[in-house]
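G., before I forget:
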Amino acid sequence: MIPANFDYIRANSVDEAIGLLQTHGMEAKVMAGGHSLLPAMKLRLSAPEKVIDISRISGLRYIREDGDKLAIGATSTHRDIEFSDLVKSKLPLLAEAAATIGDPQVRNAGTIGGSLAHADPAADWPASLLAAQAQIVVKGPGGARTIAAEDFFQGLFETTLADGELITEIRVPFPAANTGAAYKKFEQPASRFAIVGCAAVVTVENGVCSRVRVGFTGAADHAFRDMNVENALTGKAPTAENIAAAAEQAAQGVDLMSDHFASEDYRQHLAKVMAKRALSEAAGRA
Ligand code: FAD
């Protein structure tokens, strides 16, 4: 499969990339790892006339501590995050989620910013970033703004990114003491995309779950935070019974997807199972 002809332009800075997007408008698309854009171009689902490569902008690929948060540059690859000692020690949920993405080739090339911008309903990052209360920093011709992960994903391949804006950084607060986290997914066996994936972050204080955050991916047309599950467990002891009861609330009232991988009913069932597994493991690690 061969894509339609396009011009390749390498941007050397974020400002240059934003300028190129302004100049070329709808004709242009940025490319980071190319592991979603290029397949779409080969299938002729996307046919940009200009492809602006941002993967070699040096200031966009980093993982560092910034006060009480982890700051991840948008072109950090899944592999960078999977193997980062800082991530493993301070936010192991992210290393765990990264390791579940695709195969080594995909993890070597694909980037966290590209995954978020693409907003595939089955992508792994959104669940963990919703549960970990991440913020997404974007920059465009009008300057920079910060968007909470829970406001970012709007629909099928749809986000709050405006035309001409680039994701530059993902900011994730370090968890409080006595907090555990886990990501569990039922995956498509060939691609490893999530048919249903659930991330949970649980803080246990004085024998009760004082704070619970749950994010789902794969289940609906976009990733979502599940406050029904969170509320059902908050203030309760992290017992198997309480976790099972909270997991029963999973994806209630959500318009779930149905496709050749899983029916709506099966996704509803999987959401409960994945929630139970993620909550149990997160609470056990708290
Ligand atoms: P690109 O393909 O370069 O870009 C994707 C889109 O995002 C484009 O529209 C582009 O213009 C835009 N974009 C890129 N970077 C930015 C930015 N910084 N700001 C604004 N817009 C931007 N993903 C999973 O989550 N789980 C899986 O199990 C999984 N399995 C896969 C298996 C295969 C075989 C393949 C090919 C892909 C798989 N993926 C999976 C997707 C993979 O993780 C992609 O790399 C990722 O979704 C997109 O990242 P990218 O850097 O390759 O983005």
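The chain has a mean pLDDT of 97. Residues 29-37, 39, 74, 101-102, 106, 110-111, 113-115, 117-118, 120, 123-125, 166-167, 191-193 surround flavin-adenine dinucleotide (CB under 6 Å).

More on Monday.
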